[in-house]
Every structure is written in C-alpha cells, then in structure tokens.
Design a protein that fits this description.
The chain is mostly beta strands and 374 residues long. Helix content is 9%, strand content 45%. The strands form 8 sheets. The chain has a 5-stranded antiparallel sheet with strand order 1-28-27-26-25, with no helix packed on it. The chain is globular. The N and C termini lie far apart (70 Å).
Amino acid sequence: MKILRVSAALVATVLLSTAQTARAVIDEHPPGPGYFASDNVEWITTLPIETDSSGARLLDEYLYITTARWLAIYDVSNPTMPERLGTAVLPQQPQFSEEDVDTNGKILLIGTLGNLYVYDVEEKTNPTQIGMLPGADQHTISCILDCRYGYGSGGLIIDLRDPTNPKEVGNWGDGMPASSGHDVTEVAPGLVVTSTNPMMLLDARKNPVRPRLLALGPPKDDRFIHSNAWPQTAKDKFLLVGGETGGPFCGEEDAGAFMTWDTTGYQKTHTFRMIDEYRVTDGLPTDGNATVHTFCTHWFEVHPKFRNGGLVAMAWYEHGTRFLRVSKKGRISEDGYFLPVGGATSAAYWINEEIVYAVDYQRGIDILRYTGKP
C-alpha cells in the first residue's frame, strides 16, 4: 500500500508539471483558427455564421452579404465588432448564393432560381422583398444610375424606377462586339465597364436603355474576364481586372490572373491596353502558398487611398487573401497574404484603411488588419 501511495503521488506530480508546461505553451501561443499570414497581416477574429457566401457589398458603413440561407445586413461602423442588424430568408439555391450583390442602400438586387428579386433595405433591421421579375436571373445584376436601372451580366437591362414592378427594357449587348459576360461594374455614374471579352466601356448617362460604346479592352488571348474596378470613379490611369479559372494549379501561365490596364488616352484611341499580370505561386502553406486549388482568383477591392497605384486586396480561393501592390507604372507585386487552413476565400473588402473582411466559403468572415503601408 505504501508503494502505491508513493506511485500515485509521483503520477500526480508529473501530471501537474505537464499541465503547467502546457499552460505556459498556450499562454505564449494562444489557440485560434488555423492560418498562415505574412508579418504585415493580423488576424482579429472570425464570424463563422456567414459561410457559403460568394460576396457582399459595403455601402455607408453597412455590409450586405448573401449566403445560401439569407441576406444579412451588418453595421460595420465598429469594424472589428460588426453588429448584425437584420436578415431576410431568400428563395435561394442550396449553394452558390448571389455574387457581387448590389444596392444603393434603399433597394437591393438578387438574381436566383431564374428570377430577379428586389428587396427594400432602407430599414436595416427588416429587409423585405418588394418586387420580382420572372426570367431575369443573370450571374450578377448591377445597379446603374442609383439603382434606377439594373444591368445583368448577360446583357439584360431592367427598369427599376418603380422597384415594386421591375421591367425588362433592353439588352446592352445588342450590336456590341463582346461575349462571355460575367459581371458589370458602374465605375462612375452612368459609365459601365463590362467583364466580357473584350471588355467594353459603355456610356449609359443619356440613354440607359441603349448605352453608347466608348472603348474596348481586348485581352491578348481568349482568357475569361471575371471582374474589374476603375479607381477614382474612372479618373485613375489604371483599370484593374481579375480573371478566373478552374484549378488544380494557379501558378500556370493560363491560370486566372490579376491585371493592370492602361486607360490613358482612351478618349482618342478608344482602347485600353494591358500593362502587367500577376499569378500566385503554388507551393507549401508554410511559405504562404497552396498546393492545389478548386479555382484561381475571385473578387477584389482597391484600398481607399489607391491613386494611380497602391494596394489591392484579392480573394484567391485556397490561396486566401493576397495583398497586391500596383506601382506607379502599373507593375504588380505581392505585399502580404492571409492563407486560411481549410478555407476558400471568395471576396475581400476594405472596411476602412486597415481592416479587411475576407469572405470565405468554409470559414465565414475573417476580420483582418493590414499593418503595412497603404
């Protein structure tokens, strides 16, 4: 019996020492969601409830995000502690919710299950469906001229002046040289850049039903154009463009890329010219890379201080969020990264000059702080 008591005491001492050692390790390296990040990117927290989202829209300190379950509206005036204000259950597909959802803060457009749905979002705690147009579902539908019109990615033009009774009134692709429409971006009031091949700059200011072609952006090959942004309401000298391709590798020459295009002098040449393109490097997560991918590149957003060069946050599926820097000459380099474990990032949004929301299909929303130079 005496030997047993000594052995029990010894075991208890060893267990206590082990527990103290483990506690010291945890205190020095606290647990958290798995990720790899560059030194200039800090993980703050994760909102795990908004999974399976293909994108959101930030407007006036409110974030509108669609998932396969609902439309949710967040107050992000305190960006590290967002508050969910209201939700609306959507007539939604079981997966792949509306991408690049658009709103003017009063109405919001969602295309799904073959139809266009119009939501009243003025009361942020109670978003409500107020209109529907059968057969008007396209991959994305964008607000034009303060949501008085909607442009579908496939060409549809929707009259939304009475949002309770939306009407199909035309097709911006009629007589135009472009195909493979994936998205439409209103880069300035009434000025639209289409993510097509070739890209087109359309002027809808005088006649939204029949926009006028101002310029083309023909890629050097038959690549797929996913999305675009023209900073400073189309006054920046760079048009920024993203592609998208299927995996399994994103470092190959024909994989989706992030691109810079020169817009200077387009009024005379009626042409945009590609300057540079950037692709990630396949490799090990310990080096900030991913080994294989389902897709390459997705939605991106420019930093609020982007002026003829600057910073871009881009979602790159299994490659996470990549922080890319555009030089004054339009050359692209990587400035940082956030690589989640078991994630696939669909979109990235600058909430302010340092906080980024990384929307992830698996994880929800990762809230990040970028600590480098803007």
